[in-house]
Amino acid sequence: MPDLISRALTRRTVRTTKPSRERTWKHLSPLLRLLLLTQLTSGIGFFAVLPFLAEHLGTALGMAGWMVGFVLGLRTFSQQGLFVVGGALVDRYGVRPIVLAGCALRVAGFAWLGYAEQTWTVIGAVLLIGFAAALFSPAVESEVARQAVIREEEGHGSRTRVLALLSAAGQAGAFIGPLLGALLLAVDFRTTCLAGAAVFVLILAGHVWLMPQHIPGRVRTRQRGGTRVLLRNRSFLALCCAYGTYLLAYNQLYLALPDEVQRATGSQAALSWLFALSSLLVVCAQLPLTRWAGDRLGLRRSMIAGLLLIAAGFAVVAAALPVGWTGVAGLLPAAGYVVLLTLGQMLVVPAARAWVPDLAENGRTGLYTGALSSVSGLIVLIGSSVTGSLLDLDLPPAVPWLILAAVPALAAAILPSRSERYADAGGAH
Length: 429
Hints:
single chain; mainly alpha; Growth Hormone, Chain: A; 17 helices; 2 strands; 78% helix; disordered N terminus; transport; Multidrug resistance protein MdtH
């Protein structure tokens, strides 16, 4: 009888403490809640402005098309390319000062952009906005990843659930921001920029008030040489390459997909609906899918499954192109691509971010988090140039899509073993 009672109590304890049934948000620390709300509000402020920048530059300021593209490219470069710098600064000076600096620069950048009318002033404003993100984002992402690992080690469920919340918060911001921006644009672009700046003023004030001066367990790294060690970390570089192929595939929403929608319908009006479909899928399905994947797949298999789903999305369009469907039927393959790409994204992004702390050198999570974006951004820069050339060549329409399908499928094969972790002179961690 005592054994029966003991086993019953054990089963009851397991049921009541089982991580997979835990409501993640309810059990988050105040710091994690602050960082996730920061991701949401920063997305709202950013996407209230940036989707309307190209139209403002070309129509209101009369810039040539090549100059508009150059300005937008500079913004991307100043952001993605400098993530690794921002990550290194986070490791050296801590999360709080870097987040505060990034918020202050964002406020200045958006306010400047609202009043910029000359080419050089516009360039200065967008560089400032991009560099602000290069400080702000690695600080938030690396600390969320570190806190997620701590929660996992304490038995509060898979780290990917917290990182899924981070992705969902970012996508919710990307969905709400343009709606806010469209309303404000009825006044003028300057008002939209000032509203974006106001959002970051609120974020800045919240972090001044709520962000602790020192986060327990966060060690500041003063030693140099971290970049050299990173470049010799083959497992991490393999992860960057695989993640870069996902970003390259995602970039086709802006490169290959518009061509396909134009072919199918004769205009690009349906693009906004497809983008909305992608954002809504992430907001609605990210957490359930991540919970399911965390219980059944783990990090490596989640990334493999995600990359194969992305490959399948390209293959769907390639298979349908020879049929030559147009109109609403012609949009079905494009919608299938968007759905499969988004499902793949929901598996790949939390898993990749969750994997970084395992592969990073002690005390350099910020550097590695930033490097994941910077190295992947370089892959996208090179890969997009190649993709653009493929689309311009006189090839059968399905060929570029088949090549794009092969890239993530091959990337799944180069992922490191889940057991491979960073090892220094003192051993693995």
